[in-house]
Predict the structure.
Amino acid sequence: MFDQRQAATLLAALLYWKREGWRTDGHEVEIASGRGMFEPLSESEIDALCAMLQEAQDQGGLAFPCEPPLVLSQRETLRLQELIEAPPPRTSKFCSAQQRYLDNRQTCDRSGDDPPKF
């Protein structure tokens, strides 16, 4: 739950983004686009979101659902740590598979279709 001050800051940030966002030199565009996975909100979408936030704030506060935490076993945690510290080499097979994935993801993002299943 956000208090009144936090909600006001969220609204101010959205209005600032609406006015200045596309001109930023920082990484905010990357954040707003989900690292290129979708288009940032348009001005009208930001207006609609601001109205929703303002209405929620007027009704006593804002609460956002959150995803349940990811729970890993000790074995899974250790394996993940190993992969982070020493990732496998990027072979040509890996690089070509990664490129196919990125191409398919971009194609699906533009068309709105679900990605192909492999």
